[in-house]
Amino acid sequence: MAVRHALLRWTVLVLAVVVWQLVAGAHGSVYFPPPVEIAGHALDLWFSGPARHVFLTEAAVGDILPSLGRMAAGFGIAAVAGIALGVAIGRSRRVYALCDPVLQFARAVPPPALVPVFVVILDFGTPMQIASIVFSAIWPVLINTAEGARDTDPLRIEVAAVLRLTPVERLRFLILPSALPRIFAGLRLSLSLSLILMVFSELLPGTANGIGFTLTDAQSRSDLLTVWSALVLLGALGYLLNTGLLAVEKRLIGKGRTTTV
Amino acid sequence: MLRLDEVGQHYGDHQVLHDITLTVPDGQLLCVVGPSGCGKSTLLRTVAGLLPTYDGTITLDGTPVRGVPDNLAVVFQDYARSLYPWLTVRENVALPLRRRGLPRNERRAEADRILARVGLTDTARRHPWQLSGGMQQRVAIARALVCRPSLLLMDEPFGSLDAQTREDLEDLLLEVHRTDGATIVFVTHDIDESVYLGDRVVVLSPGPAAKIVLDLPVELPDTRDQITTRGLTEFVTLRSEVGRAVRKR
């Protein structure tokens, strides 16, 4: 059953790739190279390095790792700050009511539109890129955490009062675990925003490396094969990161899965 | 000793409790009966210090109740919500022991000891939602007992259990009360249950502004049995008396 399920899951993707391969192969257009060629190029470009570098080439070390590093830093800061602020806001009805319009407004601003602001403030470079990621990715996790913390079951809060848990114990044993499903819903959104902003901030002039830089650089050289390889790489990265986050979530929340809140 | 003196409670303009005066001596098992929605739970929450403002005075061992007193435990009706589902059974039971500053292994040992007492061995590492309703309420009782409270408040704790489980837990409660000697205030809408469990039954009038309409000592043998006790003439008489008081308008 598990095998059949996995087959079914991947059928459409595999079919799409096969059709793409056949059509692109038949037309021979330079704009739409066949997937086999893209995969081979990506392999040459990034994954044909020496074994002691886990097969990463210099280009991979020089472009993929800095991108991932900036994304990890941005997402990490957004997650920690978002959860901390979200709990603080969600625990007080008054603070929540006061902050809600601001949060809804901040969330409604399309994240890439903020990048020019950070370019002006911080100039081009890694700090600007990380700041762009943080200020885009923080909102979903902050808002979801605040809603999760606000919706803590009132009976469970009474239980905490009767057990006379300290504020720290309340946070650790009640509010965070109870808000965890919402926190992860926010983290998933934040993660995909981090990826988007990571690439977007690297598309700007003034960047000297990164996957986004690879894209613009290859485009300026009309190297469509590299452009396509970078796109496939981004898709794969997004998929892998989300799968990783889901695995963490399953591990943490699986234990309390019948929670109704 | 728990003393309530002219205690009133209201939500805004809506008077819930009116002029409740009551003294519960140490070690007594007091059952509070009343029709649904009469304010029994509000009375319990007020005594527990969960509702910060009230009229009149409540003192526990001479100290006025302002906030949740020490040495007090509460068992709620809704065990599924009152237990923390993300913690194991043992972690739930050990949670109140943290403030006593016991090291981790002693907290665990104490939790296991109390779990065995309520008839739950081999469940310590499971999660509450993996257990039946009756077992979950046993966990909640274990969590309430683990700090050896001098006052145990119970808010219709067996109300959502099936008859057989309910009788088992009633007997467990009587056994715990006999050996620990804690003062227990047990709120229920079940007349039979109140007479079977109580040393004393207090009946509240239907709300709004519920007040005490009957205060009745239960003079039944201390050792009670689901079959014989309920068949006693005294039991039947007491039950009718409580029943009449509950239905009176």
SSE order of chain B, as H and E? EEEHEEEHHHHEHEHEEHH
User: Largest beta sheet of chain B, briefly?
Assistant: 6 strands, mixed
End-to-end separation of chain A in angstroms reads 32 Å
Segments of chain A where pLDDT lies below 50 for 5+ residues?
Answer: none
Beta-strand percentage range of chain B:
15-25%
Radius of gyration of chain A: 22 Å
Q: Kindly report the greatest chain-chain contact and the residue count on each side.
A: A-B, 22 and 23 residues
SSE-based structural type of chain A: mainly alpha
SS strand fraction of chain A: under 5%
Q: How are the strands ordered across the major sheet of chain B?
A: 6-7-8-3-9-10
Largest sheet, strands/sense/barrel of chain A: none
Principal-axis shape of chain A: globular
Keywords (chain B): ATP-binding, Nucleotide-binding, Transport
GO molecular function, one term (chain B): ATP binding
Pfam families (chain B): ABC_tran
Domain ABC transporter (chain B): 2-231
Description:
By secondary structure, chain A is mostly helical. Helix content of chain A is 79%, strand content 0%. Chain A has ten helices and no strands. The radius of gyration of chain A is 22 Å and the shape is globular. Chain B is globular. The model of chain B has no long low-confidence stretch (mean pLDDT 92). Chains A and B meet through helix 7 and helix 8 of A and strand 6 of B.
Q: Nutshell version of this structure?
A:
Chain B: InterPro entries: AAA+_ATPase (IPR003593), ABC_transporter-like_ATP-bd (IPR003439), ABC_transporter-like_CS (IPR017871), ABC_transporter_ATP-bind (IPR050166), P-loop_NTPase (IPR027417). Chain A is mainly α.
